[in-house]
């Protein structure tokens, strides 16, 4: 009788997993269809939806790499040379941005587009562009303060000396490029900036400050706070997601136990605040009724948790990553309207400025697709 019960249980579990995998495959297929459709119909890079259509830009803002990265991923899933050609032609539009020294966003722009392109094709064009992008990023390094300022003071004077936690996601390209080009300085800058973020942005309870402002002369900390979060002592949810994902990646690249410990601490904070929910509020300290949610933070965290599980060997993080992805498929994917631009609904760009609230966002779509692929093509 016991054996019979065990057989039934095991069959029920495998039916459940099969059903979940079918849901993942359906979401991935929809993402590929949408992305390829956009790659043909759009003339500029998509950024965030508004009134049911993508807002686009020729320059690519800081999100162009995610669109190119999604086309590359679509090509990988479909094993299709024509899709790779499409990805290549979009990636080439970013070439001039590799000399952009005005932003920290070079990893966001060039890792999904050029590093991924190089990994897939072996074409040195992509490698050289990504290495150039890393050099432009490194040119921003503050050698006294050991941080990379996020934005340009030419845009806003208050950006002078301002570091943000998101930068952790832009550091792996420095280490990658340093190894590719045999440039130890790039690797060193990547490591030092990660140590600075670890020391300055993370609170003892594992939550994060979005911003740390520095005296540009001395590099010393002048204040800590937020740009996109609710208040200076709150935890902006996407910042926490970037941090956990970024430290997971950088611990894999460097083999650093300290970065891994930090990634685990950040992930535990994220998961504790998320509880049994799927869609986190835009700021963990603004979780009440009517507060906008941020599906992009959930997708970024889920993809990072799948990495963290591999590097830590702790299956709990993979289970949580899978739980979040399955929940996002249920709550944020509109299978009824395949023509609707955007894959993942209910993201929030910047609630304090009421910008991009309850929309699809390129980075939400990108990390969601990445997580779907990690689950089905481990
Ligand atoms: N600054 C990057 C973001 O909005 O997540």
Note down, in words, how this protein is organized:
This protein has 378 residues and is mainly alpha-helical. The protein contains 12 helices and 7 strands. It has a 3-stranded antiparallel β-sheet, with no helix packed on it. A two-stranded antiparallel ribbon has the order 1-2. A hairpin with a 2-residue loop joins strand 1 and strand 2. The protein is globular. The mean pLDDT is 97. Glycine binds next to loops.
Fold topology:
Layout: H1 2-41, E1 45-50, E2 53-57, H2 64-78, H3 81-92, H4 106-121, H5 124-138, E3 162-164, H6 172-181, H7 184-200, E4 211-214, E5 221-225, H8 237-254, H9 257-274, H10 295-312, H11 315-332, E6 347-350, E7 355-359, H12 362-376
Antiparallel strand pairs: 1-2, 3-4, 4-5, 6-7
Helix pairs in contact: 1-2, 1-12, 2-3, 2-4, 2-12, 4-5, 5-6, 6-7, 8-9, 8-10, 9-10, 10-11, 10-12
Helix content: 55-70%
Rounded to the nearest angstrom, the radius of gyration is 20 Å
Beta content comes to: 5-15%
> Ligands bound here?
glycine
Largest sheet: 3 strands, antiparallel
What's the number of helices? 12
Order of helices and strands: HEEHHHHEHHEEHHHHEEH
Structural class: mainly alpha
Shape: globular
Cα-to-Cα separation, first versus last residue: 37 Å
Instruction: Summarize model confidence as the mean pLDDT.
Output: 97
Please count the beta strands (DSSP E, at least 2 residues each). 7
Any low-confidence stretches, pLDDT <50, length ≥5?
Answer: none
Strand order of the largest sheet: 3-4-5
